[in-house]
Amino acid sequence: MAHLPSEPEFEQAYKELAFTLESSSLFEKYPEYRKALGIVSIPERIIQFRVVWEDDKGNLQVNRGYRVQFNSALGPYKGGLRFHPTVNLSILKFLGFEQIFKNALTGLNMGGGKGGADFDPKGKSDNEIRRFCDAFMRRLCQHIGAETDVPAGDIGVGGREVAYMFGTYRKERNKWEGVLTGKGLAWGGSLIRPEATGYGLVYYVGHMIKYAGKGDWKGKRVAISGSGNVAQYAALKCIELGATVVSLSDSKGCLVAPEGQHFTSEHINEIAEIKLARRPLTEFVNGSASGASSFRYIEGARPWVYVGAVDIALPCATQNEVSRGEAEALVAGGCRFVAEGSNMGCTLEAIEFFEAARSKDQAHEAVWYAPGKASNCGGVAVSGLEMAQNSQRITWTQEEVDDRLKKIMQDAFEDGLNTAKQYVNMKDGELPSLVTGSNIAGFVKVVRAMHDQGDWW
């Protein structure tokens, strides 16, 4: 990649996958897969376009829009749309690359893709957001469809934005079809979709806890970052299962419960209202009606070095939010399980540290890390279930969707676990490498499908 412009996020995602594949026996058993890695790492198609829209003052504004259609061997391209000023091709390629293998781990027929724009929804009126979504979809609709590419929401794209874009697609293409997921329940959406990533993360970690012989969620002390959908619903499910949640965060800082206290479901619901109004977490401390004034908001910081002793860490905010130093602080505080609710939530150095700690020694108990492509695949799994419901023009009950989600997360855990046992040499008493096992499991599914379809030989 030396002849290409620097794409640090994508290069990190590629190196993490390549390193784990090289560290296993996969290429010894299947040397031809090394060639397949070079092919699968290049997107099938990248679409870039300008988005011209009008603000409330009548001024024309312009943003860059993107869709990276990375791989369709297993099904239509599937992955979110992100509206955030930091969006660029490197970030979208990293997210789309991860999405290929994440979608493969769900066992559903979905390829991998990602898209978005460098548009900042913060501070924009509803009318400005509607006009931007309309302009964005007028360009994107030429390249997507229910059997081609099915985007979803992501950072900056929630139910409101999906609704605006679906309306534009329907009018522009003269079609009502399951082209976007995360839709409203009255017009093709699925129950459990908003909760799915957070719930699925907790279901996945539950299997880790059980396999490691540490009981269940009851009594576990949990540090969570982020305060969006993933963090909120992960926190609510942890609380429901008897765990204690002690932190959340936003882009400006972190919120930590004082010693002896923790977040309640009422706190989480109040934070959800604050986030829905696009207001900062500081309002929870300064104006809370639920007795949260004693909670500590630490500006410009992430929670990991401030939470003290925790059993479980769930990074649910954004990429590279756990550094090597923060990983060391978590383990020193007794953390035994780390699972990503965000995509590529840990730096390579942090992952290497966690992976080196999978065996119990005199300094600490064994530490077990789960990569986002496995532990947070519940969101796209329920998006896939929404696609299935749309195809059949039916709606499943909440219990049906939740049961399917639980089974998908169990299968994703067991797939990574068993693949690690097959391809990675382990020391006595060492926990299997879920990052290597999940990477191999997803990679093999995709490249075998590509081989069968003549994409490489």
Report the top-level CATH class of the domain at 196-375.
Alpha Beta
| DSSP summary: helix tally | 16
Q: Within the CATH hierarchy, at the fold level, what is the topology of the domain at 196-375? A: Rossmann fold
CATH homologous superfamily identity of the domain at 196-375: NAD(P)-binding Rossmann-like Domain
| Overall mean confidence score, pLDDT | 95
Uncertain segments of ≥5 residues (pLDDT<50)?
none
- The level of helicity is 40-55%
Structural class: alpha/beta
How is the largest sheet built, in terms of strand order? Answer: 9-8-7-6-10-11-12
Radius of gyration: 21 Å
% residues in beta strands: 5-15%
Order of helices and strands: HHHEEEHEHEHHEHEEHHEEHEHEHHHH
Assign an overall shape.
globular
CATH architecture descriptor text of the domain at 196-375: 3-Layer(aba) Sandwich
DSSP, total strands: 12
Largest sheet features: 7 strands, mixed
How far apart, in Å, are the first and last alpha carbons?
22 Å
Describe this structure in words.
With 457 residues, the protein is α/β, with parallel strands linked by helices. The longest helix is centred in the C-terminal third of the chain and has 26 residues, at 398-423. It has 16 helices and twelve strands. It starts with 7 loop residues before the first helix and ends in a 5-residue tail after the last helix. Helix 4 (89-105) packs across helix 16, helix 5 packs across helix 6 (159-173) and helix 7 packs across helix 15 (398-423). Helix 8 (229-240) links the parallel strand 6 (221-224) and strand 7. The strands form two sheets. Strands 9-8-7-6-10-11-12 form a seven-stranded mixed sheet, sandwiched between helices. Strands 1-2-4-3-5 form a five-stranded mixed sheet, with helices on both faces. It is 44% helix and 15% strand. Among the domains are: 42-177, Leucine Dehydrogenase, chain A, domain 1 (Rossmann fold, 3-Layer(aba) Sandwich); 196-375, NAD(P)-binding Rossmann-like Domain (Rossmann fold, 3-Layer(aba) Sandwich), CATH 3.40.50. 51% of the residues are buried.
